[in-house]
Amino acid sequence: MPFTVVRMNLVAPHEPPESRSARYRAAVEMAAYADEHGVDTVQTEEHHGTGNGWLPSPFTFAGAVLGATHRIAVTVSAIIGPLYDPLRLAEDIAVLDLLSGGRLVTVAGIGYRPEEYERAGVEWSRRGALQDRLLDTLLKAWTGEPFEHEGRTVRVTPRPFTQPHPMLLVGGSSRAAARRAARLGLPFFPSAHLPELEAYYREQLAAHGTEGWTMMPGEHTPLLHLSEDPDRTWAKYGEHFLHEARTYASWQSKDIRSAVRSAAGTVEELRAEGVYRVLTPDECASLGADSLVLHPLCGGMPPEEGWRSLRLFTDDVLPRLKG
Fold first, then answer.
1. Distance CA 315, CA 317 (A)
2. Percent helix, strand and coil across the chain, each rounded to 5?
């Protein structure tokens, strides 16, 4: 059975606070429904200062989802590591790990939007060194023992539930990210299907004498929406998919490698491209992919439409896949 994901980034352009509040509550309710129906993970993200309200506080949202669920994992993919205070992040993740019994998965990347660094008062040129500091500090902090940090002795408590530490992956599409993960013996999460980078990571594991593994997107990992009438859905809601695709495209330079990358300028081009796909339950069940990523609230999708998509996925597709 494929690995199943429900993705939530809470994007909604031009939405008033009352409607956005309803969207946030719907997202948590959807996560609880996905939990009850066997979905593997809820995935959320982090971006700051966007005009469309992209979720800026993934751990707050993760806490709400973990508190409303019992089994499902929550994957934060990815945090912008250099923007965090390492000690406070160690505490926050430890608390969520304890509350959830180990269901939080954190992917630490360095981001790709200089304006987010400028907004936070963090030097873009220092992002690699800051990421190294963050990861080193997290691993030391989660031992619960005193350690040296920036010239002083500190200790972080309580210790997390998961031992030796909460699930932490290093994200990125560069050799520097692969080296960083291998040096620390952490799993590596490439941001796209990059077999050559996975091979380099394995070489670095051997060089450092560490162990690790790779969680890499498939060569084709479309973002899915389910509908009994895809033509109608594209006609009525295609602009929501296009909004997100064009937002991503505006952030990504030619050097960025991402599983979510679109060159479409119209809804028709986006549909033909296949990065975002609207499928019937029959089409989804026969897709044959290693992972299925449902994006029910994509681009400010009305919650009632998101619910239709989610229920088709959990009530129609998943039983067939399990069977």
1. 6
2. 50, 15, 35
Query: pTM (2 decimals)?
Result: 0.95
Between CA 43 and CA 106, with CA 245 as vertex, the angle to 5 degrees is 20
- Provide the greatest CA pair distance for the chain: 62
| 3-state SS class at 50 | coil
Give the distance, in angstroms, between the CA of residue 29 and the centroid of all CA atoms in the same chain: 19
What 3-state class would DSSP assign to 183?
Answer: helix
Is the N-terminal amide bond of 296 cis, ω within 30° of 0? no
Q: Which tokens go with 237?
A: 């809601």
d(CA 102, CA 117): 30
DSSP string over 113-131: -HHHHHHHT--GGGHHHHH
- Per-residue pLDDT of 291-312, as tens digits, reads 999 999 999 999 999 999 999 9
* 103, 72 Cβ separation under 8 angstroms: yes
